[in-house]
Design goal:
The chain is built from 10 helices and 12 strands. The chain is of the alpha/beta class. The structure holds 4'-deoxy-4'-aminopyridoxal-5'-phosphate.
């Protein structure tokens, strides 16, 4: 730490993203990326946009907001785009959390939430999940805090029904309720249908998973017009050209080709079912996942040991070295070849430690 750093950040522990190693080609199942590229017209659109990189991107994000509002059946005033959904989440903490509106989220959820709470100075409460890693909806009913819920949750993949989110939103009318739907396309039910009944609902989405654009950094929020205006005021105050023109062009082309996304999602869901079956046959236990990953543990091998042994064999999964989930690994569902490699190497490791 330099002596110039603001005291506010002296004890900040930054978020640790999943490894992106460059030393060798891994079967990469650690950061929930899509194994498929975006549709070819998206890369072409990005290349065309690159020819105009001398100009700023559109600060109003007009074309992409229009496409997204068409696909999701809302008005353009209900949509806003961000530099990844991480940026959307940061602006939600900035906009909707303070001493009067403390944040609340689960102990086991997306690890960025507590970091964003600290970096924005928002007071926050961490609410433990139940022993089976499900969320007790009653813990949030009438809590009077700005609730952040990943649905499906990460890293468990467990999803709540929109009805449960509705109870939380309607019982906390003085607070925004932020539902992070990063993984919703892989089989959970979206809360989009609740927007008319719940004016405090903020739905955060990403292009990084089902739309195969993690490297482009693109996320969006769908919410009531006033909430969107609040977020937009902050966006203009922090980074008015937050989405670059190549990403805007690629995003627009990707949204126009919903069939591409549906076909990728369908394959991932089939591969998830295959992997679940294979891993269960090897003795693994897992949470019921509606996401593009599985959260698995084996009675005969610790989470970290399995992670290290898989890594040595060229398969990268994500291990979280923290209480309650140390025995688990989060395994992204990739291509069938990826999953076959995972099962093959896991089998060999289990043989080895017999
Ligand atoms: N929310 C959740 C629950 C996530 O797991 C992730 C991915 N790390 C994100 C948001 C952020 O996604 P991105 O910034 O790539 O849109």
């Amino acid at each position: 730490m330099s002596r110039y750093l603001s005291e506010r950040f002296a004890s900040l522990e930054p978020y640790t993203p999943g490894e992106q190693p460059r030393d060798m080609a891994y079967v990469k199942l650690n950061t929930n990326e899509s194994p498929f590229p975006p549709p070819p017209e998206a890369t072409r659109a990005a290349a065309r946009a690159a020819e105009r990189l001398n100009l700023y991107s559109d600060p109003r994000l007009t074309c992409l907001r229009k496409e997204l509002s068409r696909v999701y059946g809302v008005q353009e005033e209900n949509v806003l785009c961000f530099n990844g959904s991480d940026e959307a989440l940061l602006l939600c903490f900035m906009a909707f959390c303070d001493g009067q509106h403390p944040a609340a989220f689960a102990d086991i959820t997306y690890g960025l939430y507590p970091v964003l709470a600290k970096v924005t100075g928002a007071p926050f409460e961490v609410i433990p999940l139940k022993d089976d890693l499900t969320l007790n909806v009653n813990d949030y009913v009438g809590i009077g805090k700005t609730v952040f819920i990943a649905n499906p949750n990460a890293p468990t993949g467990i999803a709540l029904a929109p009805e449960e989110i509705r109870r939380i939103a309607q019982s906390n009318p003085q607070n925004a309720v932020v539902v992070d739907e990063a993984y919703v396309d892989f089989g959970a039910e979206s809360c989009l249908g609740l927007l008319d009944q719940c004016e405090n609902l903020v739905i955060v989405r990403t292009f990084s998973k089902s739309r195969s654009m993690a490297g482009a950094r693109l996320g969006f929020v769908i919410a009531g017009e006033e909430l969107i205006r609040d977020l937009d005021a902050l966006r203009y105050s922090v980074n008015p050209y937050n989405v670059n023109s190549m990403t805007l062009a690629a995003g627009e082309a990707t949204v126009k080709n919903e069939a591409w996304m549906h076909s990728c999602v369908q394959t991932i869901c089939l591969n998830r079912a295959w992997t679940e079956k294979e891993l269960k046959a090897l003795g693994f236990e897992m949470t019921p996942s509606k996401a593009n990953f599985l959260f698995v543990r084996h009675p005969r091998i610790g989470g970290k040991e399995l992670y290290l042994k898989l890594k040595a064999r060229g398969v990268l999964v994500r291990h979280f070295d923290r209480d309650r989930i140390r025995d688990f690994n989060r395994v992204t569902v990739g291509s069938l070849d990826d999953m076959k490699a995972l099962v093959r190497e896991t089998k060999a490791i289990l043989e080895e430690i017999k």
